[in-house]
Amino acid sequence: MLKDKKIIIVGERDGVPAPAIAECVQASGGEVIFMDTQCFV
Q1: What is the SS3 assignment for 32?
Q2: Which residues of the chain register pLDDT less than 50?
Q3: Residue 35, strand partner residues
Q4: pLDDT recorded at residue 10
Q5: All structural domains of the chain with their residue ranges
Q6: CB atoms near residue 13 (< 10 Å)
Q7: How open is the CA angle 33-34-36, to the nearest 5 degrees?
Q8: Which candidate, 29, 21, 27, places its Cα nearest to that of 8?
Q9: What is the pLDDT of residue 25?
Q10: Model-level pTM?
Q11: I need a surface site. Which of 3, 10, 20, 23 has the fewest CB within 10 A?
């Protein structure tokens, strides 16, 4: 489903961080072009 797609990731510090999401995206064949982990209070 994500094969050959370019993905922007916004993770959450207290939830799922961006690097964890990036691993899943890359395993699915997607390309991460930007990722950032934010703190939403």
Answers
A1: strand
A2: none
A3: 9
A4: 96
A5: 6-38
A6: 12
A7: 160
A8: 21
A9: 96
A10: 0.84
A11: 3
